[in-house]
Specification:
single chain, alpha+beta, TY-Chap_N, SseB family protein
Length: about 325
Amino acid sequence: MEWSEFARRLGRELAGLERDTILIVRERDESRHYVQAMREPDRLYAEAVSNNFLDGPLLLTLADEEVMSESGWRPPAEPSPRNWWTELPAVSSVEDHSRLADVMVTALRDVQGVRRPSDLVYESFHRHGTGLIELLDFGLDTADPSRISSQRRSAPDDLETRLADAKQRGDHTTYFQLLLTADLVMPATAQDVEDPDSAKFPTTSIGGSTYVMVFTSPESLGQGLYRRTTFAALAQAWPDPAWQLAINAGLPSEVHLDQAAVARLIPAPQQPVMAAPVPDKAPIPIRAPQGTRLWYWPGEGEETPVAVYDAIGGVWTPVAIPAPWGE
């Protein structure tokens, strides 16, 4: 398991941590290298070990402590907290828990020097309980399998969860950013699946209005056939301006949009930028060799010199034209 995958799973476990439950993640061979979190009534509180509990070569350097501060940890204090610490409000988003997981990974990997997630073990337990809780989806070994008394699975970390979270917080920007990049599915018939180009949009009636139905995953749709589409393809092929769009109907992330809103969410195609015309280069004057003569020819008869070029001064010097010879 890579650190990025471990951070994702840790964020999911933090988001699902129940009240008065503690999660400790520590190095397998050095129990003094650890991070921990506990769900309290008004916050999710997290700690990472400080020099108050380390000695010798395990002591954090000034550079280590600078990394801790820059990543978001708050320094220990007297009389408490004696560890590096941080917290989240009781109501926090999925993204907030993911950021906290990244902060905890920084402490483990970049400061405490844990080489890989497989070098970690964990303990999870209720503060008033007697046994450990096995986290079936965490991907780490438990510190003491003999003490496991219960098991818990993580909440699904899927697009529907993040959409529902964004909707609950009123974060329209995040909701629509997720929607625009999602691989959407639509209920379909067998013929639609075989020939998607000729498939019709599935509709339903809500409050007397016609809605096109889309879902953000086959699981959100439930049982039945489906075909895939994207939000951009949906908007470009919109069949009727009077119709509206129902996203994840019947789920916590359900949102309704009219056709105008659907069209506004699609970025306008950028017009090609015409390159500015390149001006012609200014002509470079040609300097004639010293003594070059400028001749006059009346059309018939002999040519007559009228000027001589002075290359040093860059000028033409007139030449006196001799008077015609008399008889």
